[in-house]
Protein backbone atom coordinates (compact mmCIF):
# COMPACT_ATOMS: atom_id res chain seq x y z
CA UNK A 1 0.00 0.00 0.00
CA UNK A 2 1.24 3.45 -0.89
CA UNK A 3 1.27 5.67 2.18
CA UNK A 4 1.62 9.43 2.53
CA UNK A 5 3.06 10.91 5.72
CA UNK A 6 2.09 14.46 6.65
CA UNK A 7 4.30 15.95 9.36
CA UNK A 8 4.00 19.32 11.10
CA UNK A 9 6.83 20.06 13.55
CA UNK A 10 6.39 23.08 15.80
CA UNK A 11 8.29 24.82 18.57
CA UNK A 12 6.64 24.07 21.91
CA UNK A 13 8.55 26.90 23.60
CA UNK A 14 6.85 29.52 21.39
CA UNK A 15 3.35 28.02 21.55
CA UNK A 16 2.07 30.69 23.96
CA UNK A 17 3.14 33.48 21.62
CA UNK A 18 1.72 31.68 18.58
CA UNK A 19 -1.69 31.46 20.22
CA UNK A 20 -1.64 35.11 21.30
CA UNK A 21 -0.45 36.53 17.95
CA UNK A 22 -3.46 38.35 16.45
CA UNK A 23 -2.12 37.95 12.89
CA UNK A 24 -0.48 34.56 13.35
CA UNK A 25 -1.10 31.05 12.12
CA UNK A 26 -3.17 29.97 15.11
CA UNK A 27 -6.04 32.44 14.70
CA UNK A 28 -5.86 32.24 10.91
CA UNK A 29 -6.00 28.46 11.08
CA UNK A 30 -8.85 28.52 13.57
CA UNK A 31 -10.84 30.64 11.13
CA UNK A 32 -10.55 27.86 8.51
CA UNK A 33 -12.48 25.39 10.67
CA UNK A 34 -16.27 25.10 10.82
CA UNK A 35 -17.50 27.18 13.74
CA UNK A 36 -18.84 24.09 15.51
CA UNK A 37 -15.33 22.56 15.49
CA UNK A 38 -13.36 25.48 16.91
CA UNK A 39 -14.38 24.56 20.45
CA UNK A 40 -12.56 21.23 20.05
CA UNK A 41 -9.36 23.29 19.82
CA UNK A 42 -9.99 26.19 22.20
CA UNK A 43 -11.15 23.92 25.05
CA UNK A 44 -7.55 23.05 25.85
CA UNK A 45 -5.84 25.09 28.56
CA UNK A 46 -2.24 24.72 27.40
CA UNK A 47 -1.18 26.57 24.27
CA UNK A 48 0.89 23.61 23.06
CA UNK A 49 -2.23 21.41 23.14
CA UNK A 50 -4.25 24.02 21.26
CA UNK A 51 -1.63 24.19 18.50
CA UNK A 52 -1.43 20.39 18.24
CA UNK A 53 -5.22 20.04 18.10
CA UNK A 54 -5.49 22.69 15.40
CA UNK A 55 -2.67 21.15 13.34
CA UNK A 56 -4.42 17.77 13.47
CA UNK A 57 -7.69 19.23 12.17
CA UNK A 58 -5.96 21.16 9.42
CA UNK A 59 -4.27 17.94 8.31
CA UNK A 60 -7.67 16.23 8.17
CA UNK A 61 -8.89 19.08 5.97
CA UNK A 62 -5.93 18.62 3.60
CA UNK A 63 -6.33 14.83 3.54
CA UNK A 64 -10.02 15.13 2.71
CA UNK A 65 -9.54 17.71 -0.02
CA UNK A 66 -6.68 15.75 -1.61
CA UNK A 67 -8.81 12.62 -1.41
CA UNK A 68 -11.75 14.23 -3.20
CA UNK A 69 -14.00 14.46 -0.15
CA UNK A 70 -16.50 17.29 -0.57
CA UNK A 71 -16.60 19.56 2.50
CA UNK A 72 -14.31 17.20 4.44
CA UNK A 73 -14.84 18.69 7.88
CA UNK A 74 -18.61 18.47 7.55
CA UNK A 75 -18.35 14.85 6.34
CA UNK A 76 -15.99 13.66 9.05
CA UNK A 77 -17.35 10.89 11.27
CA UNK A 78 -16.02 9.06 14.31
CA UNK A 79 -16.10 5.38 15.19
CA UNK A 80 -17.52 4.10 18.46
CA UNK A 81 -14.05 4.52 19.95
CA UNK A 82 -13.68 8.06 18.60
CA UNK A 83 -11.38 7.35 15.63
CA UNK A 84 -12.03 9.99 12.93
CA UNK A 85 -12.53 8.99 9.30
CA UNK A 86 -14.40 9.49 6.06
CA UNK A 87 -17.18 7.09 5.05
CA UNK A 88 -15.66 6.29 1.65
CA UNK A 89 -11.97 6.99 2.29
CA UNK A 90 -9.23 7.87 2.11
CA UNK A 91 -8.18 6.10 5.28
CA UNK A 92 -6.00 8.07 7.66
CA UNK A 93 -4.72 8.15 11.21
CA UNK A 94 -3.24 10.89 13.39
CA UNK A 95 -0.83 11.13 16.29
CA UNK A 96 1.04 13.87 18.12
CA UNK A 97 3.67 14.35 20.78
CA UNK A 98 5.67 17.29 22.10
CA UNK A 99 6.33 19.48 19.05
CA UNK A 100 5.12 17.09 16.35
CA UNK A 101 1.81 16.27 14.66
CA UNK A 102 1.69 13.48 12.07
CA UNK A 103 -0.94 11.91 9.85
CA UNK A 104 -0.66 8.87 7.60
CA UNK A 105 -2.94 8.28 4.61
CA UNK A 106 -3.63 5.14 2.58
CA UNK A 107 -6.24 3.10 0.75
CA UNK A 108 -7.05 0.81 3.68
CA UNK A 109 -6.98 1.00 7.50
CA UNK A 110 -3.69 2.01 9.07
CA UNK A 111 -2.37 3.41 12.33
CA UNK A 112 0.45 5.68 13.44
CA UNK A 113 2.01 6.59 16.75
CA UNK A 114 4.69 9.13 17.59
CA UNK A 115 6.47 9.70 20.89
CA UNK A 116 9.21 12.15 21.86
CA UNK A 117 12.16 10.95 23.91
CA UNK A 118 11.61 11.39 27.64
CA UNK A 119 12.59 9.66 30.88
CA UNK A 120 10.88 6.27 31.10
CA UNK A 121 10.73 3.79 33.96
CA UNK A 122 10.12 0.49 32.19
CA UNK A 123 8.87 -1.05 35.43
CA UNK A 124 5.85 1.31 35.30
CA UNK A 125 4.68 -0.39 32.09
CA UNK A 126 5.43 -4.00 33.02
CA UNK A 127 1.76 -5.06 32.91
CA UNK A 128 1.45 -3.79 29.32
CA UNK A 129 4.43 -5.81 28.13
CA UNK A 130 4.88 -9.45 27.28
CA UNK A 131 7.37 -11.18 29.58
CA UNK A 132 9.99 -11.54 26.84
CA UNK A 133 9.62 -7.84 25.94
CA UNK A 134 10.10 -6.80 29.55
CA UNK A 135 13.21 -8.95 29.94
CA UNK A 136 14.69 -7.59 26.72
CA UNK A 137 14.07 -3.98 27.76
CA UNK A 138 15.68 -4.51 31.16
CA UNK A 139 19.03 -5.32 29.55
CA UNK A 140 18.84 -2.77 26.71
CA UNK A 141 21.67 -0.21 26.56
CA UNK A 142 19.04 2.57 26.67
CA UNK A 143 15.85 1.05 28.15
CA UNK A 144 13.80 4.24 27.73
CA UNK A 145 14.52 4.53 24.01
CA UNK A 146 13.99 0.81 23.50
CA UNK A 147 10.64 1.07 25.25
CA UNK A 148 9.45 3.99 23.09
CA UNK A 149 10.54 2.12 19.96
CA UNK A 150 8.45 -0.86 21.06
CA UNK A 151 5.53 1.18 22.33
CA UNK A 152 5.03 3.16 19.12
CA UNK A 153 4.96 -0.15 17.22
CA UNK A 154 2.28 -1.50 19.56
CA UNK A 155 0.18 1.67 19.43
CA UNK A 156 0.36 1.83 15.64
CA UNK A 157 -1.00 -1.73 15.39
CA UNK A 158 -3.76 -1.09 17.92
CA UNK A 159 -4.80 2.10 16.13
CA UNK A 160 -4.83 0.33 12.76
CA UNK A 161 -7.21 -2.20 14.30
CA UNK A 162 -9.37 0.69 15.45
CA UNK A 163 -9.40 -0.41 19.07
CA UNK A 164 -6.59 1.72 20.54
CA UNK A 165 -5.88 0.75 24.14
CA UNK A 166 -9.25 -1.03 24.24
CA UNK A 167 -7.11 -4.09 23.52
CA UNK A 168 -4.34 -4.71 26.03
CA UNK A 169 -0.94 -3.94 24.43
CA UNK A 170 0.52 -7.27 25.53
CA UNK A 171 -1.87 -8.98 23.10
CA UNK A 172 0.22 -7.66 20.18
CA UNK A 173 2.88 -10.23 19.22
CA UNK A 174 5.79 -9.15 17.02
CA UNK A 175 7.93 -11.07 14.57
CA UNK A 176 10.41 -8.75 12.91
CA UNK A 177 8.51 -6.05 11.06
CA UNK A 178 5.16 -7.81 11.34
CA UNK A 179 2.75 -8.26 14.23
CA UNK A 180 -0.25 -10.43 15.01
CA UNK A 181 -3.22 -9.10 16.99
CA UNK A 182 -6.84 -10.27 17.02
CA UNK A 183 -5.91 -12.87 14.41
CA UNK A 184 -4.72 -10.28 11.88
CA UNK A 185 -1.22 -9.74 10.51
CA UNK A 186 0.01 -6.14 10.48
CA UNK A 187 3.05 -4.78 8.68
CA UNK A 188 5.16 -2.08 10.30
CA UNK A 189 7.51 0.62 9.15
CA UNK A 190 9.59 3.13 11.09
CA UNK A 191 9.14 6.77 10.07
CA UNK A 192 11.95 9.32 10.24
CA UNK A 193 10.39 12.33 11.98
CA UNK A 194 13.43 13.80 13.69
CA UNK A 195 16.10 13.23 16.29
CA UNK A 196 14.95 11.67 19.57
CA UNK A 197 11.46 11.08 18.14
CA UNK A 198 10.04 7.58 17.71
CA UNK A 199 7.35 6.97 15.10
CA UNK A 200 5.85 3.88 13.45
CA UNK A 201 3.06 3.17 10.98
CA UNK A 202 1.14 -0.11 10.75
CA UNK A 203 -1.10 -1.45 7.98
CA UNK A 204 -2.58 -4.79 6.97
CA UNK A 205 -0.67 -5.04 3.73
CA UNK A 206 2.98 -4.32 2.95
CA UNK A 207 3.89 -0.63 2.96
CA UNK A 208 5.55 -0.29 -0.41
CA UNK A 209 6.01 3.43 -1.00
CA UNK A 210 6.20 6.24 1.51
CA UNK A 211 5.68 9.87 0.43
CA UNK A 212 6.56 12.58 2.94
CA UNK A 213 5.08 16.05 3.32
CA UNK A 214 6.85 18.08 5.99
CA UNK A 215 5.46 21.60 6.49
CA UNK A 216 5.57 24.21 9.23
CA UNK A 217 2.35 25.24 10.95
CA UNK A 218 2.38 28.59 9.13
CA UNK A 219 2.97 26.94 5.75
CA UNK A 220 0.00 24.62 6.26
CA UNK A 221 -2.30 27.53 7.11
CA UNK A 222 -1.04 29.56 4.15
CA UNK A 223 -1.59 26.66 1.73
CA UNK A 224 -5.15 26.15 2.93
CA UNK A 225 -5.92 29.86 2.80
CA UNK A 226 -4.71 29.92 -0.80
CA UNK A 227 -6.61 26.77 -1.71
CA UNK A 228 -3.32 25.03 -2.56
CA UNK A 229 -2.87 21.30 -2.11
CA UNK A 230 0.37 19.40 -1.65
CA UNK A 231 1.73 17.44 -4.59
CA UNK A 232 4.78 15.22 -4.84
CA UNK A 233 7.38 17.16 -6.80
CA UNK A 234 10.77 15.59 -6.23
CA UNK A 235 12.49 12.24 -6.32
CA UNK A 236 13.20 12.20 -2.58
CA UNK A 237 9.59 11.83 -1.58
CA UNK A 238 9.29 15.33 -0.11
CA UNK A 239 6.39 17.54 -1.04
CA UNK A 240 7.15 20.80 -2.79
In short:
The chain has 240 residues and is an alpha+beta fold. 32% of the residues lie in helices and 26% in strands. It has 2 domains: 110 residues, Alpha-Beta Complex (Ribosomal Protein L22, Chain A), CATH 3.90.470; 96 residues, Alpha-Beta Complex (Ribosomal Protein L22, Chain A).
Can you give keywords for this protein?
single chain, 240 residues, alpha+beta, Ribosomal Protein L22, Chain A, 2 domains, five-stranded antiparallel beta sheet, four-stranded mixed beta sheet, 7 helices, 11 strands, 32% helix, 26% strand, globular, disordered C terminus
Tell me about this structure.
With 240 residues, this protein is α+β, with helices and mostly antiparallel strands. It has 2 domains: 8-100 and 212-228, Ribosomal Protein L22, Chain A (Alpha-Beta Complex), CATH 3.90.470.20; 109-204, 4'-phosphopantetheinyl transferase domain (Ribosomal Protein L22, Chain A). Helices cover 32% and strands 26% of the residues. The strands form 3 sheets. The chain has a 5-stranded antiparallel β-sheet. Strands 4-5-1-11 form a 4-stranded mixed β-sheet, covered by helices on one side. A two-stranded antiparallel sheet has the order 2-3. Strand 7 (173-175) and strand 8 form a beta hairpin. Helix 3 (35-42) packs antiparallel against helix 4 (47-66). The longest helix has 20 residues, at 47-66. The chain is globular. The model is unreliable at 230-240 (pLDDT under 50).
Chain-wise SSE layout:
Elements: E1 2-9, H1 15-20, H2 25-30, H3 35-42, H4 47-66, E2 76-78, E3 84-86, E4 91-97, E5 100-106, E6 110-116, H5 131-138, H6 143-161, E7 173-175, E8 178-181, E9 184-190, E10 197-203, E11 209-214, H7 217-226
Parallel strand pairs: 1-11
Antiparallel strand pairs: 1-5, 2-3, 4-5, 6-10, 7-8, 8-9, 9-10
